[in-house]
TrEMBL record:
<protein>
    <recommendedName>
        <fullName>Large ribosomal subunit protein mL53</fullName>
    </recommendedName>
</protein>
<comment type="similarity">
    <text>Belongs to the mitochondrion-specific ribosomal protein mL53 family.</text>
</comment>
<dbReference type="Pfam" id="PF10780">
    <property type="entry name" value="MRP_L53"/>
</dbReference>
<keyword id="KW-0496">Mitochondrion</keyword>
<dbReference type="InterPro" id="IPR019716">
    <property type="entry name" value="Ribosomal_mL53"/>
</dbReference>
<dbReference type="GO" id="GO:0003735">
    <property type="term" value="F:structural constituent of ribosome"/>
</dbReference>
<keyword id="KW-0687">Ribonucleoprotein</keyword>
<dbReference type="GO" id="GO:0005762">
    <property type="term" value="C:mitochondrial large ribosomal subunit"/>
</dbReference>
<keyword id="KW-0689">Ribosomal protein</keyword>
<dbReference type="InterPro" id="IPR042776">
    <property type="entry name" value="Ribosomal_mL53_fung"/>
</dbReference>
Amino acid sequence: MLTRFLTDVRITFNPFSARSKSARLFLSLIPPNARTEGMKVEAKMLPRTSQEPANLAVKFKDGKEMNLDLSKMRITDVMEEVDRHSRTLARKEELLGN
């Protein structure tokens, strides 16, 4: 997963819910040095009895924000959505020679 174009990651999930598996896996895919490189990571864990769906909000370097309902998505779908925009930014960066 391309994370160098992410600036802000906000995730809300119930760690005890089976529907939050994508949220837990997404958090595990963020590299350990992401915060030192400028990424803001905010994880809010809901109580065990909460029925609120898992949610992911991602902000990219170009200002685009993406909100995903993780309770209805598999981790491959989430990665595909995030990587799609990241690849576009990588292509633009490559064309500009940065």
